[in-house]
């Protein structure tokens, strides 16, 4: 009887040692599997595929102290080596994978429909090319731009001239009045500066050449763009009228307003508002030469440190003890007075 009991105990022990039990956690739920001890992790993968419907291609095993393992296994570990280790299974079932794939296809199909609807109903930019406008812009323009190569940084002056040429307001006014200028160039401040005045712009032979004073007197920078553009409007008026009479000023005002309205990128502001940047010399609004205050001994033999403002029409405006801004204001008032005198004389003669 004792011998029979010993044989039965040995058979139970042999049976227990030939089976390995593993606990696998998937989506937070524990699943228990029992495999023959000689089985490998590849066999565990197959069992999981059959019991949990998770394809081997979707399986990933995170095993404590071993890391991440996934089929196909190049060197399958025996399941006996996994006993007692925490095993976490990552992977979607076939149904879950199918649902995700279906949802993805539905999302893609909806995106395609949206793109098609957008392409069908979205506003399309006009494909019409205004060939007449293009032809006029190529005809009524500044045909050559030329900076002074012997002055510092001529490439900057060229960009400044290009900005004037491509200015929307300037282009619109030149098309309207059919202005065609052979050469737009910069002038050398030193050549066109005297003790009494400074030339801001020149128009030679009614549009054959227009010169503009782009640079500061010290050659250390460039003057305000708005002031130079006003000077250009003045010089373009000389394409039609030579003398500064009533006809000249009427057309000059028209061109300035056209340039301001045509410059849609700046909101169509009129140039006639007489706004100047701080430190910018006031452009001569009544001739080719702008007024300038001169520090030093004046022409009447005044003391050093007094100032006088010379005007285009001749004569000086007293500026003793005035600031720079006050001197420019006096000069502007003098120009306005002389302009009114010219207009009054023109009306009397008519």
Description:
- The protein is of the alpha+beta class.
- It is about 40% helix and about 15% strand.
- The chain contains 9 helices and 14 strands.
- The protein has helices spanning about 1-15, 40-50, 95-120, 130-140, 155-165, 170-175, 225-235, 245-260, 325-350, and strands at about 20-25, 30-35, 60-65, 65-70, 85-90, 145, 185, 200, 200-205, 210, 290, 290-295, 305-310, 315-320.
- It has a 5-stranded mixed sheet with strand order 2-1-5-3-4. Strands 6-7-10-9 form a 4-stranded mixed sheet, covered by helices on one side. A 3-stranded antiparallel sheet has the order 12-13-14, with helices on one face.
- Helix 4 (about 130-140) packs across helix 6 (about 170-175), helix 6 (about 170-175) packs across helix 8 and helix 7 crosses helix 8.
- It is rod-shaped.
- Mean pLDDT is about 75; it is low at about 10-15 and about 265-325.
Topology, element by element:
Elements lengths: L1 H16 L1 E8 L2 E8 L4 H12 L7 E4 L3 E3 L17 E4 L3 H28 L9 H9 L5 E2 L7 H12 L2 H10 L5 E4 L11 E2 L1 E4 L4 E4 L12 H13 L8 H17 L26 E2 L1 E4 L11 E4 L5 E3 L5 H26 L1
Parallel strand pairs: 1-5, 6-7, 7-10
Antiparallel strand pairs: 1-2, 3-4, 3-5, 8-11, 9-10, 12-13, 13-14
Please trace the helix and strand order, writing H or E for each element: HEEHEEEHHEHHEEEEHHEEEEH
- Average pLDDT, to the nearest integer? 76
C-alpha-based Rg, rounded: 45 Å
Number of H- or I-type helical stretches = 9
- Please state how the strands of the largest beta sheet are arranged side by side: 2-1-5-3-4
Helix content: 40-55%
Please summarize the sheet with the most strands.
5 strands, mixed
Structural class label: alpha+beta
Indicate the low-confidence ranges by residue numbers: 10-14, 267-324
Which of globular, elongated, flat, extended, rod-shaped describes the shape? rod-shaped
Distance between the termini: 153 Å
Number of strands: 14
Strand content: 15-25%
